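Schema walk-through. Below, the input block comes first and the output block second. Nothing else is stored per chain. Lengths vary across the set, and this one has 326 residues.
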Amino acid sequence: MDSLLEKERAQLIAFADTSMASLTATRPQLQAFERVGLNLYLGGATVALSERAGFPDTIKIDLLRKTLEHTGTNASIADAFAQRLEISAQRPRFRQLIDAGRAAMTAILDGITNTALPALSDLIQQWADPTVRGAEIKKVTFLLTDIVGSTALTSKLGNSAAQRVVRAHNAVVRTAAKNFRGSEIKHTGDGILLTFPDAAAAGRAAIEIQQEGTAYARDNPDAPLLMRLGIHTGEASFEEGEYYGPALGVLNGVCAAAGDGQIFCSEEAKNRSVGPAFRFQDMGKRKLKGSQIDAQLFKLDWTPKIKAVKGPLEYTQIGRTPIATP
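--- output ---
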């Protein structure tokens, strides 16, 4: 079994390298939607190879996880993606790329070399283009949170303590979303993607998130919560519970540009945020991570909350029951 597993793992890695090369031939870095498409395609290839070899689900998941890590996907995201592949396959849009990867790997296993399979870049472009499917495209304001150093945090504190930080993050973000009419779209593993009715609401929520996160970190120095936040208003479509479109790639890049405890906004979001609560610093034009886009970025300033005077009730940790004090 071990020799067979090593052989199949090597074949899958070679397939992944070829797939990656076909996508990066004309672009040095993959955009977010291209990365998701590649992962789905590799998921289908892993299923085909595992079924042919008779591997159980545990090995299939491990093969996919390691393959995604090999192509540059974050370890925690790769693990979550591999675990949820079967669920993803139930969605018609995702199934298209999974089936395409399965067909490509099956052709290789069968020794078929003259099959005219569609180019992977074309498959992903069609999959990601909402206009091909007649989907409605509209302007949407997004806010993305990202826990800084989440992988290192787990290594340093252990899984239990790191999960406490994640739960604190979740509570802080979801409370702010409720307070400012935000809607949670999905948990990314290291953060949360939300939408808001307008950029001003997203900005106010972002400030509250950083303020509450700082308060939590102050009261929990052994397990601090550090976040970077990104806000962008752009075009996207909503299908099967997910948002798609160029706005998501910009949003990821805007968030990635922010440092610990910072809120970065695109010019589109900044221009729609009006009011005395907002003070921006122009951070200049930057090439967004994972894309070829040069975007004007702005840092939304915020200040920590003044620690309240101890009153009759006090609770300083997320989830702790208030305790009466004398």
